[in-house]
Amino acid sequence: MAAVADTTAPVTTLREKISRPMVVGAIFLAWLVLFAVLRGRQTLTLAAADLTGLHRWLNDVNDTIGANRNSNPLFLYFFNEIRLGIDNLVTFVQSLISQPTAGRPVPQVGWLGVVGLAGYLSWAVGNWRVALLAVAGFTFFGLQGLWQESMDTLALTLAAVLVALLIGIPLGVWAGLSDRFNKVMTPFLDFMQTMPTFVYLAPLTLVFLIGGASAVITTVIYAAPPAIRITAHAIRSVPETTVEAADSLGTTRGQQLRKVLLPMSKRTVVMGVNQTIMAALAMVTIAALIDAPGLGKTVVQALQSLDVGTAFNAGLAIVVMAIVLDRVTTAAAGRAETARRTSGRLARWRRPLLAAGGIGTAFLLYVSHTYVYAAEFPGDGTVGTHIASAADTATTWLQDHLSGLTNALRDVITTVLLNPFQTLLTDSPWWLVGLTLVALGAVLGGRRAAATAAVCVGLLVATGLWSDGMTTLASTAVATVLVMLLGAVFGVWMGRSALVDRLVRPTLDAAQVMPPFVYLVPFLALFGATRFTAIVAAVVYAAPVAIKIIADGVRTVPESTVEAATSVGCNTWQIITKVQLPMARSALTLATNQGLIYVLSMVVVGGLVGAGALGYDVVAGFSQGQLYGKGLAAGLAIVLLGVMFDRITQAAARRTRA
Asked: What is the pLDDT of residue 345?
């Protein structure tokens, strides 16, 4: 009798056999084949000095706004008033700690008062260790010969943080209380946090001109999103049972907010303040490109003249300021927990000691206001001179003794990775690259990601900077590949070893505190002013966040799954590649998303050290009036690349988790 086929057996369809990596590979293969046939056609190249109709129109808009700034009602009664208010705030803070005021050759509070106040406030909100760190850090600024520049940076940061928190915390509370408002705000916050810091500068100078006030306004817009997002998260994290208990006692909505939600959210809100301060400091230093005073201006001028010693000295001051502000606000966030652990005797003495410290600080403020020796930092900054000289000497030694190694590394990565991929992007027809990006968006992220990619490609073509955009895309892609390689190696190592995690994580946390500018300085010394310098700086800047995300993803893989793999004879390599990394796919995708955004931000900053492409276009737009419109269009192109990357990788992460 003939055998009857088992119709209950599962049938594997062709669609199930074709995996997503296979489709991605097919897309790249088709791209390569068409590139070989169509190379050099419809590449939309534009010379550095050439302008499109859009660029000229933007120049005309800039000229028109400049001519009508003091007559147009929108500027006269709105934008100019905002700028005047912020300018008054900046001038007031600068007159307190950094700039001479009318009738006085020195600020209202001299160096001794600032150091004393910094130490006292750090002790009051944190502990004696961070107070010592603050005193040492602020004293170091003077020893470097950078007291006024440091105080200018601090003044702009404080002014921006004050305004950002006045706006951000109420909006964050509102978003925490209202689901509807939270849904409205989330896309705007995502967009604002996707944009590289460079991009904020050009459009705001169009409205608010250049200078300290514009720098603060730009910084407020950049630094407010963390305050809004983290405050909203803090409010929403309060246990529902606590809110219900307050409800049952008959409390009003306002009483719940003041006596339940905000007190229970205080620690997280202070963490939001920390993130706002760090974002503000990073933006204030970059705002030197629009004539903001402070350490950033010193770094920019030194980078443009390839003066590594001066750049290193000023960059070190920025790092010290970032570490001090980070440690003080971090200690403030953990203050309540620290107080609970403190013994009763020490707790009883704290208030009298704070009162005595307050009296001593008031005396230092009076002395620094009254006497010149306490107002002007003594000495001529010989420590800074020695630091700059040592940096120059180290640079010369590195270039003399390690140039063979550094040049070999640069040449290998440039020849093997960067040049081929850049050629593929810049020499392919624009529509072929566009179709490839849309297809990758569809495969990795779905229909919405594909639609976003299509819109971004169309707008990128409209900017007239397609070729420069593809050059920036090539650098970003190569740097992201290197970031993910580092992230996978160190992330897996940290995820598998608690000891390694404890040793490495503090270094990664410290690296994330430093503003982007600082990363350029050491690699400028090693590799000179080249696009490779920007790529290496971008890798080092973006690697910490990718490493931490991958480490956390590997650590969440159930221990029972790892033990089961071990029991069936899997070795360490098989456990990592067959179990832990596949089960941490969502973390890998998220790390790619964050790595791309961080890399893009740093690659365009690299326009200051020879990276070229969109970063150079933005910098040239600030320095050459006839290129302002092109710089503005370059900023838009950077945004489009960032949005496209972000939407595709976020959608891919969601599909991976599903």
From this structure: 55
CA distance 319 to 279: 13
Q: What is the pTM of this model?
A: 0.82
> Which of 591, 615, 605 minimizes the C-alpha distance to 543?
591
- Local confidence band at 341 (pLDDT 50, 70, 90 cut-offs): low
How does 505-532 read in b/e, with b if 16+ C-beta sit within 10 Å? eeebeebbbbbbbbbbbbbbbbbbbbbb
> One-letter amino acid identity for 545?
V
Q: What are phi and psi of 54, to 5 degrees?
A: -65, -40
How many angstroms separate the CA atoms of 131 and 15, rounded?
Answer: 63
Residue with tokens 């009664």: 77
One-letter identity of residue 484: M
Using an 8 Å Cβ cutoff, are 3 and 400 in contact?
no
Q: In this structure, are residues 291 and 282 in contact, taking their beta carbons and an 8 Å threshold?
A: no
Position 332, amino acid? A
SS (H, E, C) 482-498: HHHHHHHHHHHHHHHCH
DSSP helix, strand, coil percent of the chain (3-state; round to 5) = 85, 0, 15
Separation CA 481–CA 409 (nearest Å) = 16
Query: Cα torsion for 536, 538, 539, 542, to the nearest 10°?
Result: 160
Q: Residue 638: which residues within 8 A CB-CB, separation 6 or more?
A: 195, 196, 198, 199, 472, 600, 604, 614, 618
Distance CA 217, CA 420 (A): 41
3-state SS assignment for residue 12: coil
Which residue type, as a one-letter code, is found at position 9?
Answer: A
The C-alpha atoms of residue 363 and residue 29 are separated, in whole angstroms, by 74
CA-based radius of gyration for the chain: 27
Opening angle at CA 211, ends 111 and 622, nearest 5: 130
DSSP strand E in 131-280: where? none
3-class DSSP state for residue 11? coil
CA angle 341, 343, 349 (to 5 degrees): 120
- Distance between CA atoms of 204 and 223, rounded to whole angstroms? 15
pLDDT at 372: 84
Read off the pLDDT band of 140 (50, 70, 90): very high
**Dist. CA 538–CA 606, nearest whole Å:** 8
Q: What is the pLDDT of residues 422-473, one digit of tens each?
A: 999 999 999 999 999 999 999 988 888 899 999 999 999 999 999 999 999 9
CB of 550 within 8 A of CB of 487?
A: yes
First to last CA, the chain: 47
Identity of the amino acid at 324:
V
Three-state secondary structure call for residue 213 = helix
Q: Which of 231, 215, 77 lies closest to 167 in space, CA to CA?
A: 231
Q: How far is it, in rounded angstroms, from Cα 301 to Cα 310?
A: 9
Instruction: List the one residue out of 523, 572, 571, 580 whose CA is nearest residue 552.
Output: 580
Q: Which two tokens stand for residue 376?
A: 């002007």
Look-up of token digits 């169509």:
38
